[in-house]
Amino acid sequence: MRDIVDGLTTWRAAGVAFAVATVARTWQSAPRQPGAAMAVSVHGEVLGSISGGCVEGAVYELCRTAIRTGAAHTQTYGVSDDDALEVGLTCGGTIQVLVQPSVAMTELDEVLAAIRDGRPVATASVENAQLVIWPDRVAGSLGTPDLDDAVARQATGMLALGVTGTIHLGRQGQQRGDEVAVFVQSYVPPPRMIIFGAIDFAAAMARIGTFLGYHVTVCDARPVFATRARFPDVDDLVVRWPHVYLESTTVDDRTVLCVLTHDPKFDVPLLQVALRTSARYIGAMGSRRAHDDRMRRLREAGVPESALARLCSPIGLDLGARTPEETAVAIAAEITAQTWGGSGRPLSDLATPIHHT
């Protein structure tokens, strides 16, 4: 939904009716994960994608029907279905799609504004009924107060973790029941990517970080390099000593840290701080010789081996990269592999599932 929120906001401002199709559940090798969204307006315009082209044609028609009837609908597509070839889902997986007309979506304007502004909000949907959950309040209803309370409790926890998925409860909210399947979609601020070192490799890394959906910050102690002219599109540009800035800013377990300075006077104090954080990924650029020298200095500074084991250095996967842009791809590939448990090897060499849990 974050990818299409600007378009939906424009449609709302113009009074255009629409329907949103969202991937609610997946099994096996599904092309997109839960939360992927596609919208269709009453005029037939399309925003977003839910399957990379596999079932868009069929879901387009479901959205048109939802706009016309005002009713939500859930549809499952799988390769074993009789119409698998007709809708094009030939990847071997199964996806469940929830289609909701805009008239059935609770507090829609407030939800879109929260997503656009990066404020946390979650929606809990059962076809034509919906709850909206903010950290401090709840709106809407799924039918009964008991069910609303049970869903709100679980959805609040999912929102805190940034988790999207389906929960199963009894009709009155019983924890051991499974009569009601509720799709909970959490919208949280995008994860952070902090790039240290305002060099040409940082410019390429910032572009790919933005493309991947990160909130990108570039930090360098040298004001002559850390300029808006060189980094016009980053979210934040910081002129401070890297380790001082890192000590003062928020880092969580979704944060990615890319140390591209490859200068000991910056790297060593910065990595001492970085390796004490909960950052999901910490990578440092440099040659093999620079890496060995860096590790020696960090050990002399008292950094334990367990912390050093978290460091990805030299940064990136072995793609044979030469240019800043190719190097950024190699770094982004390593970040993705570490995030989802990928091996970094060619898929053609493997017999394991393509999509990791």
Shape: elongated
Q: Care to count the β-strands?
A: 16
Please bin the fraction of helical residues.
Answer: 25-40%
What is the mean pLDDT? Answer: 89
Instruction: Characterize the biggest β-sheet.
Output: 6 strands, parallel
Question: Any idea what the radius of gyration is?
Answer: 23 Å
Number of helices: 11
Strand/helix succession:
HEEEHEHEHEEEHEEEHEEHEHEHHEH
* Unreliable residue runs: 80-85
Oligomer status: single chain
Strand content: 15-25%
InterPro entries: MoCofactor_Util/Proc, XdhC_CoxI, XdhC_Rossmann_dom
Domain XdhC- CoxI: 11-78
Pfam family, one: XdhC_C
Protein name: Xanthine dehydrogenase accessory factor
Question: Helices, strands, pairings?
Answer:
Blueprint: H1 5-13, E1 18-27, E2 37-41, E3 46-48, H2 56-69, E4 73-78, H3 84-87, E5 94-101, H4 108-117, E6 121-126, E7 129-133, E8 138-141, H5 145-161, E9 165-169, E10 180-187, E11 192-196, H6 200-211, E12 215-220, E13 236-239, H7 242-248, E14 256-259, H8 264-274, E15 281-284, H9 288-300, H10 305-308, E16 311-312, H11 324-340
Parallel strand pairs: 11-12, 11-14, 12-13, 14-15, 15-16
Antiparallel strand pairs: 1-2, 1-5, 2-3, 4-5, 6-7, 6-10, 7-8, 9-10
Helix pairs in contact: 1-4, 6-11, 7-8
